[in-house]
Amino acid sequence: MVAIQLGEIWLTHHNIDAVFFIVQWLPLYLAWGAMVAIALLYRKSDPEHKPNWHIQL
Description:
elongated; 57 residues; mainly alpha
């Protein structure tokens, strides 16, 4: 999604509006980071979690 935004800026030859860019994309990255952190914490706190190293494809 960021690549699309940067591509649009490049094609239209406009300068990057940093405030607009941060306001538009920062919430997305914060939400993504929070979901990753929650998933990692949940996975580490699960006593039944065992690595799937024995599974062969």
